[in-house]
Write a structure and sequence with these properties.
The protein is α+β, with helices and mostly antiparallel strands. The protein has 5 helices and 7 strands, in the order βαβββαβαβααβ.
């Protein structure tokens, strides 16, 4: 993964091997996040660690210009120190590297946090077909989940 903001906590990121997925599954379940689709194609999950802390996780789903930011888990011991922001920035940088121009996310608990990172609320019906067809949209996240979008990459603006 690409480097992240040096003023924030230093994270080391590793693309998860299949052998690491049981820990990701357990972390997602403990956080009340969906995990039943982890092994489906088109998903990339990362373990991001702080020195001496429990692992944090995050993922990207899809290929091409539209990608889904998903499965961001920060242990309670690491919250309130900018770790979530650094994880999202690192995942955004990886999405840009992979050719994405917009990141999408669904959340039931982190809409304000995401808006603080310049993600903009959008109507679910406005999601592009590749995003609307994901398991997150079709079945895993409730209809009440907030849908947010952010332009990323070269020429990105504040608008979704």
């Amino acid at each position: 993964m690409v480097g992240v903001d040096t003023a924030a906590p230093a994270l080391h990121s590793v693309l998860l091997a299949t052998s690491d997925w049981p820990r990701l599954h357990a972390a997602l379940n403990a956080a009340g996040l969906p995990s039943s689709d982890l092994l489906l194609p088109g998903r990339r999950f990362f373990r991001l660690g702080l020195e001496g802390e429990a692992a944090c996780y995050g993922g990207l789903e899809g290929d091409g210009p539209e990608m889904l930011l998903r499965s961001v888990v920060v242990p309670s011991s690491a919250r309130g120190r900018g770790v979530g922001r650094v994880i999202v920035q690192a995942l955004k940088a990886e999405a840009v590297r992979l050719g994405a121009v917009r990141l999408h996310l669904l959340t039931t608990t982190a809409a304000a946090f995401s808006q603080g990172l310049d993600y903009r609320s959008a109507e679910r019906v406005a999601a592009p077909p590749a995003i609307a067809a994901t398991a997150q949209f079709t079945s895993l996240c409730p209809g009440s989940a907030a849908y947010l979008v952010k332009r990323i990459g070269p020429g990105a603006t504040e608008e979704a």
